User: What shape does this take?
Amino acid sequence: MQQTCRTLSEKIPLPHCPLLTPSDSILFMGSCFANQLKRILLARGFDCYDYNPGCFHTYSPLYEALKASGELEFAADDYWTVPGKGYQHPYRRCLFADSLELLQAEIAKRDASMENAIIHAKVVVLTYTLNEVWVKRDNGLIASCNPGYAGGGGHGLMDVYVPSVDENRRNILRTIDTLRKLNPHVELILSVCPVSLGRTYQKKDHLIANQEGKSILRTAMIDLEHYFPAFELMMGRRDCLEADGRHLTWTAMEWITDEFERMFVAA
Assistant: This one.
């Protein structure tokens, strides 16, 4: 598999943009793909912030940046109660607590971690996965995940929405602007996550919804900052996927991390 993937990569000339060294701090904001990329880089001696809020769509990192800059505050009563799970924060993936006090304390802890990481990171890597979002009916804000994700709440409280290219681009541009208010010299790397949808809430096949969504996200990033073509490198590479047909094998992840280093790490 390694040989096959490398042969494919040779067809795509990747520019060398030396943005960092292993000692430079990197903040990842994304889903499982970002976590795996971070895990491999950590094992290779890179300095990566441990906290990743779990951002699937273009609204989540925007909310993180706005929270860190003081431009966004969630209401104190903006939470869900979930049988068997306790209290849930709607805007961060899988954030549950046994009591409201513990939930608020954990939110404050993560807010502080995120603000510190944004201010001090040399590079922020933003990987975007989904273009189906869930709008909360009570305030119009976007939840981190679909209703019932990981046993969480939100059932009957949200409506699915598919943002346009322009809406996604505005989110990304505002995220970039807000991050640079906090850290004027930060370098930003954008990417479309190659992990495909497991299901869709649109009235179409999930394979079609996946391709449309990834294409919209990619179009929204054109000519913005630095782009890592993770999605493009993995297109059509079923031999690089786990048995579920969605997630990358560990060998493929190691190879794609090699490509990340080849693009962005100073020789």
